[in-house]
Amino acid sequence: MNEMNYPQTAPETTSHSMDYTVDMVFCIDATGSMEDVSGSQTKIINMVKQNAMNFYNDFIQIMHKKQKRVHQLRVRVVVFRDYIADKENAMMVTDFFLLPQQTAEFEACIRSIHADGGGDIPEDGLEALAYAIKSKWNTASARGRQVIVVWTDAGTHELGYGRRSKYYPNGMPQNMSELNDWWDGMNSNSKRLVLFAPDENGWSYISQNWDNTVHIPSAAGNGLAEKSYNEILNAIANSV
Length: 240
Prior knowledge:
By secondary structure, the chain is an alpha/beta fold. The protein has helices at 44-65, 83-86, 103-111, 125-133, 176-184, 201-209, 226-239, and strands at 20-29, 70-80, 91-93, 97-99, 144-151, 191-197, 213-217. The relative contact order is 0.20.
């Protein structure tokens, strides 16, 4: 796992400490391979969905243990597949859900995700990441954090691979260099990226070249163990 050199924040020790506002985007691979089962006979996509629904309580609890307070948490969801193979079902993008106030709506969204399609093994994960980077982040807070978490068991197509599909969105970066620029354009003190993805294709490039990024390698069929989920939680909490 790559180490992230995050700006250090002091633990909160008094009631007068500043609160954090955290925006988070979950990019979730929902292709057919995520329907495979792990050693515990639990479908990968169901493990991801359960982790996503547990995330608020787990995150608040671990932040409390680290003596950090979250004043506001918003979560957005980007579900991705393959524009060529899945056409209009290639990408589902939501607005931010304010948690815990919109927990019911958020959980209904997560429950609606099903693993299907995908065509060849690489998917359009870089387009999902582009959607995430261009989120309408809350940048007003001095202690705001913008966190992107990617869950996938597949490598990525090159950016624009699906451009010949009529469902491919306008405004996407033309290549990896432009996507790099998008990431560089975010505030380095606030942005965080956690990749739970195979060490291949676009993901390995990003983990080696982007700042404020941690990569927890996953593998098809057995990559979503509880240990990995806890690593994700700790990586995010340590960065805030």
